[in-house]
């Protein structure tokens, strides 16, 4: 059964229904349906891990808000806000979360840093992640529409322990990216070192 939360906390100047309508307008049908599944998965993980449900709903809905924006929109924000110039060596995969969070502030009126950090870090993770950030990182990976090899194990591990899920995904994603000869964004490596590598580098 789907949770349709009523927002009470003034984290967003819209009702959930209005926010959903904005997302339907911004995203393809395929991406929109992904976002709704991430929201529901995030709410479930939030319930299991004592995380604010309203934040989980909002962050789940908006995490891919900027995914279908043209590259130039991100490049403009990176330059205007003097974000890390290293970002310019990457593309939409890295930008839609980290840079997309800036668009979410001005365009959706969401200024809660906990929600914004969950969006920023949903692709690369981060060395230190709040429970909400962990919930969104995992919900994006295990939502019921995902069907890559290993997703069942990812769901089981995450249901046992949110942190173990973060570690599992971090390792799998890095292995996958290396297998594809992709450039690894330095924060992705930092996430791996913090969440997967054995203490002290031994
Ligand atoms: O936006 P989604 O498709 O729902 O999922 P996502 O935001 O987790 O991932 C977007 C893509 O980013 C996915 O294909 C994996 C890729 N990715 C994650 N970390 C890195 C990365 N790509 C590069 N090149 N470097 C990274 O460090
Ligand atoms: Fe994403
Ligand atoms: Fe996503």
Automatic annotation (TrEMBL):
Keywords: Hydrolase, Iron, Metal-binding, Nucleotide-binding. It catalyses: P(1),P(4)-bis(5'-adenosyl) tetraphosphate + H2O = 2 ADP + 2 H(+). Residues 31-145 form the HD domain. It comes from the Bacteria. Its EC number is 3.6.1.41. The keyword Flavoprotein does not apply. The keyword Hydrolase applies. InterPro entries: Diverse_Catalytic_Enzymes (IPR051094), HD/PDEase_dom (IPR003607), HD_domain (IPR006674), YqeK (IPR005249). PROSITE patterns: HD. It holds the Pfam family HD. Signal peptide: none annotated. GO terms for molecular function: bis(5'-nucleosyl)-tetraphosphatase (symmetrical) activity; metal ion binding; nucleotide binding. This is bis(5'-nucleosyl)-tetraphosphatase (symmetrical). It comes from Paucilactobacillus wasatchensis.
